[in-house]
Amino acid sequence: MAFSPIGDYQPGHSVLHRLPVGTKLLGMVALSVVAVVFRGPETTTGLLVLAVALCVVAGVRLGRAVRALRGILIGMALLAAYQTWQRGAEHAFVVVGAFVALVLLATAFTTSTSVERMIDAITRWLGPFRRFGVRPDLVALAFSLMIRGIPLTLEIAGETRDAARARGLERSPRAYLTPLVIRVVAHARATGDALHARGIGDD
Questions:
Q1: Which residue among 43, 108, 118, 166 is least crowded, i.e. fewest CB within 10 A of its CB?
Q2: For residues 145-182, b (16+ Cβ closer than 10 Å) or e, as one string?
Q3: Domain hosting residue 143, numbered range
């Protein structure tokens, strides 16, 4: 089965598409720091609004975004319930909302940034470290795969949850987690095989 992550690159001419990769990465890091250091309802609300706006600008397809976020609803619902019980509804909103916002920001980034641009930029930044034995191209590839893997895993989770529900097994953790792990591992192996076929990682 072919996987199509919500963060799959979509060519375009938006502001996000035109921004340098470094600027977008620094922005993601800065917003992540803001979410932690200035944690609060106002910050989380602002991040959610900004994340949704950036997804719209980047051209993220609404249907795929919704399906992917549905995949983490169970985990987020449990986390929200626990945080509400321990520290109140406001704290639950801050924690869960910030997580959702960061996932959407990562999606906007991968949607507006091609793998080639990511790899080129990171390879260029790590160029001076070649003398220390660092392989910039492999580091860049690993980083791009990690970033793109976030929305992909969420979409697989959503599809697996829908499949379990269709069989009437939505209350069975085993019926959800086992296929999820199998599909994620299968995709990782397929990616590894594809890289190996291109001679990447042979040395």
A1: 166
A2: bebbbbbbbbbbbbbbbebbeeeeeeeeeebbeebbee
A3: 131-203
pLDDT in tens, 39-60: 889 999 999 999 999 988 888 8
Contacts of 61 (CB under 8 A, 6+ apart): 6, 10
Dist CA 135 CA 129 (whole Å): 8
* Domain closes at, from 79, 113, 147: 113
pTM passes above 0.90: no
Same domain for 82 and 182, yes or no, is: no
- Does 192 fall in a domain? yes
